[in-house]
Amino acid sequence: MKQVLGYILGFCIFIIGIPALMWWVAGMPAISDIPVGRIYLGALLGIAGMVISIWSIIYMKRVGKGNPFDAMGHEVAPRTRHLMTEGPYRLSRNPMLSGTYLYYFGVLIGLWNGWALLVFIILAGLMMLQVHSEERRLEADFGDNYVDYKKRTGRFITFKK
pTM higher than 0.85, yes or no? Predict the structure, then answer.
């Protein structure tokens, strides 16, 4: 039950709350005020980001048997018991966050507003602090296996093979 509440809370904050904040700081534009091309491009990027994030969550739950998420060193969900290097994790060490960034970028494209961009930049900075915390924890948990994985897999996108 605790995990379900965690997913609901995550959905409310990251999928609804942050985009709502971006929309609010952008002046709450009506959809009719946004050019159709930006709506389609933003929606396409947003949907792609959601697919990547959901794929990552499902894969993490099935294969990793947990979650790497720590709130700055405090366990908030069962930690992963297996280092995940396949599925979405062969393309990115942080595919869930990569998908979330893509989702927010889609929102940003739709809004096309400097204040919304500022929210995105601040959020990205805060999330990077979280990523560094998680990487330290994963290295402590999985040692050389994680170090080797870091060498061959990009933090957000892997360009090398």
Answer: yes
